[in-house]
Please model this.
Amino acid sequence: MSFRVHVNPSSIRPAASDPVGEIWVSMDGAAFPGERYTDFVVRSLVSWAAPVGAAVAKRITWRFFDDPHLIRFQDSDGGLNAVGCREDSQRPLASCETTWTEVRTELAAAARSVAHSPAVAPADGQALLAIADAASTW
Model:
């Protein structure tokens, strides 16, 4: 796979607003924003799912919450480009060619693995499982 969403359920810890844990993306083997990057795991996955589920647009953006990192997805002839960069720069820090199917599959797998973490509230866990289930119908 050229595109992969990584989460480490054992790293997830409760926080005042949202559980924090390791979450990052690999694009052609490059970890973005960095390997074992920590951020708001549930908030990130839920916010990333909305535009993917409605991916009728040719371009969507995923944002990380802790720093100004983002991933831009853009349909291109014959594929989907994913580019990771800082919000204040257009310089790519990681990129790859992928497909919407691969992105949805990775998002669903990450949501499913985080849903059962003891640090995740039951309602958030159910929301993550709903994302995972919905991904197969997008």
About this structure: The CA atoms of residues 14 and 119 lie 5 Å apart. Helices lie at 41-53, 100-115, 122-135. The radius of gyration is 14 Å. Strands lie at 3-13, 20-27, 30-32, 38-40, 59-63, 69-76, 79-86, 94-98.
